[in-house]
Hints:
Organism: Acrocarpospora pleiomorpha
InterPro entries: FAD/NAD-bd_sf (IPR036188)
CATH class of the largest domain: Alpha Beta
Strand content: 15-25%
GO molecular function: monooxygenase activity
Structural class: alpha+beta
Keywords: Monooxygenase, Oxidoreductase
Strand order of the largest sheet: 4-3-12-13-14-11-15-17
Protein name: FAD-binding monooxygenase
Amino acid sequence: MAGLVTARVLSDHVDRVRILERDHLPEEAIPRSGVPQGRHAHVLLAAGQSLLDGWFPGLADELRAGGAVPLDAGGLVWRQGGASWTASDLGLCALSMSRPLLETTVHRRLLRQRPNVSIADETAVDGLILEDGRVVGVQVDGAQHRADLVVACSGRHTRFLDLLAERGFPAPEVSAVHIDLACGTRVVPRQPDDLTRAVAIEVDDLACSHRMGRMVPAEGNRWIITLGSFHDEAPPIEPAAYADFARCLPSPLIADVLARTEALTPVLTYRMPTSRRRHVERLDRTPAGFLVLGDAICSLNPLHAQGMLSAALQAQALGRAIARHGLTSPQLARAFYRQAAKVVDAPWRLAAAADFVDACTSGPESVGTGLLNRYLDMVSRACRTSIPVARQTLRVQNLLARPASLMTPAMVVRVLLAARRSRWRRRNPAGREAGSPVG
């Protein structure tokens, strides 16, 4: 996805864009080996949907035709710490689908709508061509492909910065947060009476446990169910044990769906030991004509659902940097990396703070993380009873609002009152159900 949206942005500024993809790109929407996380439950945040709709007119209609499920960006069931958040309509239409359907549809529309873009799949780049301190192309099977700009969207394990380090350029500092994430995913049929709301996300209290679950609707009347663990036993691949794992979550919703249907797939696994950020913005020297983008800069815990949006926002920042400095400017890389750092700062800080709720998480912890987590815990409790707090929290999670918007004096007062009300309701089961709207 990072490469596709970057190609779309570059197509506005250059005569020709050529994507070189190591994988075979199938015509149909099926998982591929180069995107192992693509088999698991994905959520495209509202800001990402808006960007894609602007870059690829008609994309939403084509996704719906392919079976993507329309929903309000706030129309989810979010259960955390023993109670559900109150429903909060954001008024923003989003689509839920499998990652392969999204990627394949974007791929088709890119080639259809941008005639100056082409793709060569099953093509592995062997190295960079460096002349006079500038990258002027890449090598593929001994042949040279020259270019004014090379952008590596090759993921968290990108090797191109290491190749540059071998040629004397400094390597970026790396921040790594050890989350020890293990996921197991099954796809099951979706019945009309499974849920009254479109998306279910079950999140356990990571201060007390290390397990979570997510269930999202996808094309073909299917649920994609992903169970995850942090610093704990991985979700088992044996069906009965997998169902038992789901039954340990703080709500029976996912386990109940698993119990009343036959799965369409075996348990598919995925592991991610660390979230990782390369601080390319701190590099004092980098070759002109070359950039990295996407997970190569910041690879977030995928359960926070911010990876695709982060890549899209980085691509948008690249377009602004090119418009200001020009494609071949020696200043382009530094200017873009500074803008990319601003893009990833908020999601990195929020994701890392959420990960550090689990006492087993280790790594560089930002100043104030403990205080931030204590306040966000109150925000989470306030979301059970206050529609305004839940709505603004969802806006922040969808990167439609800055995290600071949850910390204005008026919002802090609302959070404190609603969080206190939430605690009272949990202590008094004879009263209204926790999570009922209060305002």
